[in-house]
Write a structure and sequence with these properties.
By secondary structure, the protein is of the alpha/beta class. It contains 18 helices and 29 strands. The structure holds S-adenosyl-L-homocysteine.
Amino acid sequence: MIGLIAVTAAGRRAADRLAAAWPARTVRYEGPAAEAVGRAFAECEQLVCFLAAGAAVRLVAPLLADKATDPGVVCVDEGLRFAVPLLGGHGGGANALAEQLSEVLGTRPVVTTATDATGIPGLDTLGLPVEGEVAAVSRAILDGSPVRLEADRPYPLPALPSWVDADAPADAPVLRISDRVRTGGGTAATLRPASLVVGVGASRGVTAGEVLELVAETLAGAGLSPASVARLATVEAKADEEGILEAARRLGVPVTTHSAEVLAAVPVPNPSAAPLAAVGTPSVAEAAALASAPGGVLLVPKRKSQPVGRPAMCTVAVARRAVRGRLALVGLGPGARDLLTPRARAELRRASVVVGLDQYLDQIRDLLRPGTRIEQSGLGAEEERARTAVRLAREGLAVALVGSGDAGVYAMASPALAEAGDDIDVVGVPGVTAALAAAALLGAPLGHDHVSISLSDLHTPWEVIERRVRAAAEADLVVTFYNPRSRGRDWQLPKALDILAAHRTPQTPVGVAHGVSRADQWHTVTTLAELDVTTVDMTTVVTVGNTATRRVAGRMVTPRGYRWQQ
Ligand code: SAH
């Protein structure tokens, strides 16, 4: 919950607004400020204080206990100009809350956490548990002094600054990315990837204590960190084995189960007769660990618990998952910065490599984190770009493949996904495609059924294009032409318009939108009879209305339906 504290009339009005916007997330604390802050601090995950920063600091200071448990505190001035995260910027979520407040209250977030302000990712914001000397290593990164990166294998992290690298001097502080316990000395912070799967076999009635003890011993014996355990895995017959479920709860990980048939088919080093008789597979611990880590390797073969004075009831084995990179397919929109979605922006900052056409990369270069690797290429090299992006993701990197408009519309997403296997994670981010951006300029041309057709016959034979234009003409669909006309391709657009004209009157409205949302934007609404095709080029879309589309006050309007509105 978010506790709201206000003491003046103006502050209370602001708190009312926030409470009305987020009724389920907020709770009001009334009464004298010190007492209200005290109660909210104890009861809430976050506080919004409509108080001067100085007052809030004095009230909160005596309550501070621990960075890990203190709530996030955001201070908002009564004039609703600024939202200042005072406490718990990352861990307490105060920076994120200040951003969200700007949407409800119109306040400007004033984020002072160094890692946010400099565009360098905080070690605690990378989505992985981090341990060790986090403050010291973060400090070194912010100071721009060398930090040695020790990754035991690639991991899809966002870009790190150039002074964080594998070749830094041996005495530099170390940033590790590893599931192994550290043995050497010196200053180090370790990010823990969720790379390990622990397979568990157990007899009926095993206790959580016996499972946990064996897991801990096994990991410690192999020099592996419990913080990197992603899940426990076992056989379906043990899906309700309370000792395993409770052990998973205490480790804070899920349990995955596999059928005996699946496990029996997994080659393992130590099959045995006992589980075969009991549950129908010669291996549970080793086979389940491997089955939950496709493409991975068995790090620790089966080990048995050794309780004193009674038979062992538990076996475990540990597998490491294969490296899994991340490919984001990111549409940048038609050009203007404010038509780039916040999600696209976040994905650009999540990546360590960005792949795309040089002209699109120029559009967003300033948004990338320092240290982001750029793989750019010129027009035409589409297949190669797609292949490069997938190859880099397969190597375990966080890759963003960018394109204008939507990345899936006449763009890179299809060649990339035709190439990608299920060995990488793929995230699609929709973008504002040219047809939509143009429609918003032209009026409401897409109010009823519509279709997009590319007139580029570079990769599609003209007969196919023509058949589709004819079908759209017969079906009375509104048509948006992409790639309508270039210097070398000038007869296709007139031909396509002729086909439509056979089914629509010469007065049918046609919208031409050029360079939408860019500096050279222009648009016009004309008719099939009057359109001057020589004004159309490759940064243009042409939208032809259906038989119901009208020109109203210079705008193109396609009615929602033929019956209820004309
Ligand atoms: N993925 C892009 C389309 C790529 S095909 C998208 O979703 O928008 C390239 C064609 O898109 C161009 O020839 C042009 O017809 C159209 N286009 C792209 N951006 C445009 C813009 N800002 N204004 C007008 N047309 C545009």
